[in-house]
Specification:
Elements: H1 4-9, H2 18-26, E1 32-37, E2 49-50, E3 60-62, E4 74-76, E5 87-89, E6 96-98, H3 104-108, E7 115-124, E8 131-135, E9 146-151, E10 157-162, E11 167-169, E12 182-191, E13 199-203, E14 206-210, E15 227-228, E16 243-251, H4 257-267
Antiparallel strand pairs: 1-16, 2-3, 3-6, 4-5, 5-16, 6-15, 7-12, 7-16, 8-9, 8-15, 9-10, 10-11, 12-13, 13-14
C-alpha cells in the first residue's frame, strides 16, 4: 500500500479527506460547487481564506475581504483532526464571503428553473431571531434579487428567494426546531421547475417537503456576493458563540432526501450523533 506522501511525491493527488471524502464516496460530486471542512487539513485557512476541498477553488474569505478588521470567524481545534472539536466560532458580526465575484451558479439560485442544494453543520447556543446561515441579500429594497436561508424565533428553518421588487418564494418552515446546545446538520434542496414537493428543508435526518415554484423569478444577477453565516452584505450574521463545522453546496442539481440521508449517515458520527 502506498502512503499519501509517496503518492504526492510521485505527482499523484492525495485521496479526498473529511466531508469531501464522504461526498466522493456517496457519488455526489456532480454539481458540487464547494466543500468546506473545519477539520480537514486541505480546507484549513490559507491567506485568510477557508479553502474549498472540491477542486473548484470556491474559497471563502474570513470576513468581508480577508483583512483583519474584526469580522473574521475564529478557528478552533487542530487542523487535520476530524473531530467535533474542530469548528469556527462567531462573535456576533463574523461571517464568510465568497472570495471572488459571484459565478453564474450563484445567480442561478434565485432564477427560473433553479436547482441547488446546501448543507451546513451548525451548533446553536440560544433561541434567537432571524440568524442567517447563507445568502446573497436579505430581500429588502436594494438587496434583491437574492436568495437566503435562516431560522425564525422558534429556530425553524426558512428559505426565501426574491425577484427585483419582491418575494418570489418562501415556502414555510421545517416542522422541527434546531437542537440548541448540540450539533445539527441542516440544509435545503430546491428544484424550482418541479413545483409540488420539489424542495425540502432538512434537519438531522428529517425532511419537510415544500412547493418549489418561484413566482416571477428574476433573471438579473444577485444583489451581493454569496456569504455563509450572514444574509449578504454582512447583514444578520449568526449568533455570538455559535459554531460551524462545515458547509457544502451544489448547483445545477437538486439532491434528493435519500442523498441527504446518505451524507447525514456518513458525517454525523464526527459530532457524536
Amino acid at each position: 500500500m502506498f502512503s499519501n506522501n509517496l503518492l504526492m511525491a510521485a505527482g499523484a493527488s492525495p485521496p479526498p479527506i473529511g466531508f469531501y471524502a464522504d461526498i466522493v464516496t456517496a457519488g455526489l460530486t456532480d454539481g458540487l460547487q464547494f466543500s468546506l471542512d473545519a477539520g480537514a487539513i486541505d480546507s484549513y485557512p490559507s491567506g485568510n481564506q477557508w479553502l474549498d476541498q472540491s477542486g473548484n477553488a470556491h474559497h471563502f474569505y474570513l470576513g468581508a475581504d480577508g483583512s483583519v478588521s474584526g469580522d473574521e470567524p475564529t478557528h478552533n481545534g487542530t487542523p487535520g483532526d476530524l473531530s467535533s472539536t474542530e469548528y469556527w466560532t462567531f462573535s456576533g458580526n463574523d461571517f464568510f464571503r465568497l472570495a471572488q465575484s459571484n459565478p453564474s451558479w450563484v445567480d442561478d439560485m434565485h432564477q427560473d428553473n433553479a436547482q441547488w442544494s446546501w448543507i451546513l453543520w451548525y451548533y446553536g447556543i440560544a433561541v434567537g431571531t432571524n440568524f442567517y446561515y447563507m445568502g446573497t441579500g436579505i430581500g429588502g429594497v436594494g438587496e434583491r434579487p437574492s436568495v437566503n436561508h435562516f431560522t425564525n424565533n422558534l429556530e425553524r428553518q426558512i428559505v426565501s428567494a426574491f425577484y427585483d421588487t419582491g418575494i418570489a418564494f418562501s415556502p414555510g418552515t421545517h416542522a422541527s426546531s434546531l437542537n440548541i446546545g448540540a450539533w445539527n446538520m441542516l440544509g435545503e434542496s430546491v428544484d424550482e421547475a418541479v413545483g409540488a414537493s420539489g424542495g425540502f428543508h432538512y434537519l438531522n435526518g428529517v425532511e419537510t417537503p415544500y412547493t418549489s415554484t418561484y413566482s416571477t423569478p428574476s433573471s438579473n444577477p444577485a444583489a451581493y456576493t454569496l456569504e455563509i453565516a450572514a444574509a449578504g452584505n454582512g447583514v444578520k450574521p449568526v449568533e455570538t458563540g455559535c459554531r460551524i463545522g462545515g458547509a457544502m453546496m451544489w448547483s445545477g442539481v437538486a439532491l434528493s432526501a435519500a442523498n441527504f440521508d446518505t451524507i447525514w449517515a456518513a458525517q454525523k458520527g464526527r459530532f457524536g450523533l
